[in-house]
Amino acid sequence: MKKLAAVVAIGVFGTSLLYAHHGWTGYDESKTLKITGVIKAAGYANPHPYVKLEADNKIWNVVLPPLILLQARGLEKDKLKAGITATVVGYPHKQIAGEMRA
User: Fold this and answer.
1) Measuring CA to CA, which residue among 42, 39, 49 is closest to residue 83?
2) How far is CA 94 from CA 30, 40, 57, 87, in A?
3) Residue 93: half-sphere exposure toward Cβ, Cα within 13 Å
4) Residues 24-50 pLDDT 10s
5) What per-residue confidence (pLDDT) applies to 90?
6) Half-sphere exposure (CA, 13 Å, Cβ side) for 28?
7) 100: Cβ–Cβ under 8 A, 6 or more apart, which residues?
8) What is the rounded CA–CA span in Å between residue 63 and residue 51?
9) What is the DSSP-derived secondary structure letter of residue 42?
């Protein structure tokens, strides 16, 4: 019985983590943003690469698609270096100011 309870608990906990990570419902897809700025920092790793983009004296945290999609579309790591000017199109987060999903 303890094993069954442990398996159920792990299943529920694991599922909630998966949903929390892969849920894009936190972003407002009715508002499309197009921001051009300078990359201040970038991360090119799973689960989601990101850039910190400075535009109009504001730093945006831009959550990018998974690596496999970026690579399939030709966006390699060397194109996400600090100092490069970039344009990002995406959706703002509903609750976190300054965050968007590209």
Assistant:
1) 39
2) 11, 23, 21, 21
3) 12
4) 789 999 999 999 999 999 999 988 899
5) 95
6) 12
7) 27, 33, 35, 60, 61, 62, 63, 88, 90, 91, 92, 93
8) 7
9) E
